[in-house]
């Protein structure tokens, strides 16, 4: 197990400070880095991977600066960037052989590893198909496989589930969970349910800073009573939505069930609910995205009289990318 320390990490791009004053220590397990688009997740992961140079501060592995460690550190790392390049006419096997050669893996070991990884990510039956025939989910799984070629002890995945359908997402989560048993996995996303299921530790990022971190239980305990459920008439629901953060909304006949994020009881009949990770995120960032607001208002206005199951939970952006 390795200890990765971020010490006073900062990254500026001209006037823009993408990451500021980040101090953190990663050990083993799955760490989920959660933040909206532009929060600084990719920049942080690129600095941890040694691809981007910090403007200030340092990344250390087991007490030594990663610049000093150089190759030794890179040998520990597996990295899946947000978008990774591949040749569309390559088959999966050919692509992985090519990546293994770039990573200077001995040929025999590479062949064994490629077979093993194709199995792990469920691509063995399609290994001879050209990549241009692969779905987005298959390509992401191939991305994980290439990141694992050198048996990395530290695996860094930038938005690995972007663009995946729900079934692929579940499959991906399971792969990542099992990988986290033996190594350090850092995974960034803006989709709460991704980290909800698999991360042992959660880091929430906003405007370049880590605004909180801990296990889900620790975050819930620190947040206190911030989630409420109430069933109210439509007009009341509209008023409450203007005043409070609504993390979920369901039409129930002529009434509306709201899940409200607030540290104060929002309505006389509101019942306390245990805070979900998404509630905590919304509470700390004050961040109901436009699409979430629009979705809520739209669902309320659509007076179908039925439970539409208008579920705004799970994706902070209301979309996947
Ligand atoms: N090369 C660059 N030059 C200038 N600004 C940049 C550069 N890279 C990132 N930024 C800015 O830094 C901020 C953080 O970007 P970053 O990509 O790290 O965020 P993110 O949380 O990963 O977002 P996303 O999920 O959209 O990738 C953003 O405002 C972005 O526009």
UniProtKB/TrEMBL annotation:
It holds the Pfam family ABC_tran. Residues 4-232 form the ABC transporter domain. Signal peptide: none annotated. One of its GO terms (molecular function) is ATP binding. Transmembrane segments: none annotated. The keyword Nucleotide-binding applies. Residues 297-321 are annotated as: Disordered. It comes from the Bacteria. The keyword Transport applies. Keywords: ATP-binding, Nucleotide-binding, Transport. InterPro entries: AAA+_ATPase, ABC_transporter-like_ATP-bd, ABC_transporter-like_CS, P-loop_NTPase. Belongs to the ABC transporter superfamily. This is ABC transporter ATP-binding protein.
């Amino acid at each position: 197990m390795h200890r990765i320390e971020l010490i006073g990490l900062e990254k500026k791009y001209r006037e823009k400070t993408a990451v500021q004053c980040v101090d953190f220590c990663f050990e083993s397990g799955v760490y989920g880095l959660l933040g909206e688009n532009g929060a600084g997740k990719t920049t942080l992961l690129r600095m941890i991977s040694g691809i981007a140079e910090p403007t200030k501060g340092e990344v250390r592995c087991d007490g030594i600066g990663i610049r000093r460690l150089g190759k030794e550190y890179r040998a520990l790392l597996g990295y899946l960037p947000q978008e990774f390049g591949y040749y569309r006419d390559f088959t999966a096997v050919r692509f992985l052989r090519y990546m293994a050669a770039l990573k200077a893996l001995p040929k025999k070991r590479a062949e064994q590893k490629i077979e093993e990884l194709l199995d792990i990510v469920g691509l063995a039956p399609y290994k001879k198909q050209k990549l241009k025939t692969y779905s987005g989910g298959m390509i992401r799984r191939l991305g994980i496989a290439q990141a694992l070629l050198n048996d990395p002890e530290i695996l860094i995945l930038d938005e690995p589930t972007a663009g995946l359908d729900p079934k692929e997402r579940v499959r991906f989560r399971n792969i990542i969970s099992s990988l986290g048993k033996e190594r350090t996995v850092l995974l960034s996303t803006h989709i709460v349910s991704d980290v909800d299921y698999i991360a042992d530790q959660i880091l929430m990022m906003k405007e370049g800073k880590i605004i909180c971190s801990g296990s889900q239980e620790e975050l819930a305990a620190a947040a206190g009573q911030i989630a409420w459920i109430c069933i109210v008439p439509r007009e009341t629901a509209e008023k409450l939505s203007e005043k409070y953060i609504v993390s979920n909304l369901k039409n129930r006949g002529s009434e509306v069930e709201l899940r409200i994020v607030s540290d104060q009881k929002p309505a006389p009949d509101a019942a306390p609910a245990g805070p979900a990770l998404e509630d905590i995120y919304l509470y700390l960032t004050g961040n109901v995205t436009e699409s979430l607001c629009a979705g809520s208002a739209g669902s309320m206005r659509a007076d179908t009289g039925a439970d539409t199951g208008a579920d705004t939970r799970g994706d902070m952006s209301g979309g996947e990318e």
